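If you are new to this repository, start here. Below is one unmodified record pulled from the training split, so you can see the exact layout before writing a loader.
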Amino acid sequence: MSQQSSNIPLIVVGVVVCALLAGNTLLAMSYAECAETKDIQARSHDEAEHHELQLLLTDTEAKIAESFKLLDDLKRLRQQAAIPSNGMAQRVAKLENWRKSQPQAAANHAPALPNPHAPDKPVAEKNVQHDNAQHDNAQPFVQQSANAPAPSNGFVAAVVVMACNRPSVRRCLDLLLKYRPSAAQFPIVVSQDCGHEPTARAIREYSSRGIELIQQPDLSEPKPEPHLKQFGGYYKIARHYKWALTQMFDVKGYGAVVIVEDDLDIAPDFFEYMTMGQSLLATDPTLWCVSAWNDNGRKGYVKDDARLYRTDFFGGLGWMLRKDVWSELKPKWPASFWDDWVRDNDQRRGRSCIRPEVSRSRTFGKIGVSKGQFYDQYLKYIQLAETSIPFSTRDWSYLIKSNYDPKFHTAVYEKAKVISLSDALSVSDGSRECRVNYKYTTQHAFAPLAKKLGIMEDWKDGVPRTAYKGVVTFVRNGVHIHLAPEHPWPGYKKGG
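And here is the target side for that same chain:
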């Protein structure tokens, strides 16, 4: 017993030493990165480049804040273990005292960054309060688990990038880092399946910028029923999603997660959109997800960058999910075709998602398990938003169901001009919103009408893509058109 007890302080000392080395290393890397970025920024006369460099500085500030949090943990460990005042403890105290002597930034309590060439004269650092002020009134998500990072200003929504065997994941990661407003608010984790080493190496290149790689351990071949053998890839994807979301919600303890596939481009205001979305999800229980994607968002079929909709169809492709919904879905997660499964009415349970008119995500991956289904006909033509909308500071309460539904009914069934299919094909910009009536029966009856109008034809469990209460809203020749079923709406036909 006494031998075991005598080893405990040594173990704690070892842990503290390792942690101290990690903290010192992270600080050194962060200061070097800041110095280099500031030097480039000082010589840059390009406004866009200057903005991108400022975002990089904000990311680095978050790393430094993490390092000083580590010092607090070291102090607590040293006191609890009664570690003697040796050289290691003195280094901790010295670094801690230096931290306390630094001016505190208003938003994240990170110190002003010292100039390595003039250590006694701290360089005035950008005040990051502006980056975070837009979130001050955001509603928090469900309470984080004990091992989850503490939210700095209302909420944390971790981003998980689903990767497999595409080294081009770099393109996705570069955009996430470029547009992310805060590393503390939107930490990025890449979950890799497949065991593809070139892709893993590509992801590890970003470790110094705070991106974490986790790898799905089960690489065994699924064993589907003989008649489904050709769909083995979909079984692997469903298995990976369940494992990755379990890691994010149940192991890491995040209360909200943004899921991004490795072949997605994102719009400049992607995180603004998700910031607004988290407030909506926390406010309206009739919503269960926020998607950055519009299935009918091809060029020529969209118009208003700021316009958002409720939809009964799960779009995916850059979407936010809350932990309470994951806890509901996890026990019955399917073995394959997870995306079609979540579109079932049994999972949706009358709830809706938010979608934009102009997509905040766009896929560049033609080759994959789906073998390019819809890519050449629809997906490669999706228009990505180029105008940044300050969603998080706008009034989004109109999207709450009790506000949205009455105005939706009025716009579609009372104010919209009723036109025929042939008129819809020749409608011109400047016309007011129009409605084309259709009889909601089967997908087989709906498909020819959708094909003529140039929108996606398929249904999932009776729900047309992008539909809300059976209404599919899109733009043609600059005019918003509502393809609408009879009223009163009878509801979706399960399996229709």
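Two things worth knowing about this chain: The longest strand covers residues 158-163. Residues 247 and 253 are 8 Å apart (CA to CA).
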